[in-house]
Design a protein that fits this description.
Layout (H helix, E strand, L loop, with lengths): L2 H16 L4 H12 L6 H18 L1 H12 L6 H35 L3 H24 L12 H13 L7 H11 L4 H22 L1 H7 L4 H25 L6 H19 L1
Amino acid sequence: MTTFEAALLGFVQGLTEFLPVSSSGHLVVVPELLGVPSPPLAFDVLLHLSSALAVMGYFARDLLQMAKAYVSPRSMRPAEVRFWRRLLVFLVVGSIPAGVAGLVFGGFFENLFSSTLAVGLFLMVTGLLMLAADAVLERSVGSRKTGRDMKVTDALVVGLFQALAIAPGLSRSGSTICAGMFLGFERRSAARFSFLLSIPAILGAGLINLGDLRDGFSGQGGVFLVGAAVSFVASALAVYGMLRFLRSHRFRPFIIYTLLLGAFVVVLSLA
């Protein structure tokens, strides 16, 4: 792998990890379209860990508040202690389905990563999910929920959608944001919880594949680190941009993009 290829794949992965367009799908499709070698597993793991560090940096205050609510609760108002403690519980509950799915069905879905047809179909499913979520939220009656209205059952439902997104081409961020919107949460609140929920999911997958990361570093460490640095920056920009975008916009551009790209990939795979 060249330095340029590492930087390109790092940019693609970092940007698409938090945009609702499927990073896993793009890491399959982009090398196929550009004739770039598919990245080794160690490189893929490193890119995702870089994305996790980026989102942890962005939400550093939230993470510190959750820790503070348990370690030093007397320095906070009781209502804030309850909120941050509950949020941590919700993140744990929401992470369970993906953890179980990864351990039980991980091998099956890994085989799908070699199928561009599957990637194309799941990209189209991502687009249809966003189309449905926009429609549901626009037709909802009454005030929309925020993070302070979340319940354990809400976290579990979002977690189930995250577990489904183990499929290549089905966007993790898109699925979980849509799940929140289906439950009546405003777009930005759904996105914030989705991004926080990505932290344990990405770190957990990285720990499982830590051995591959260590073994794959030999001889390509410098090239890998270039890709990781680009992924970190792209991930941070994607989180910031997506949260700003969702303040006043629907999913329309992402719906069009995923449906068209998915259809193109399906046609390409059948040609």
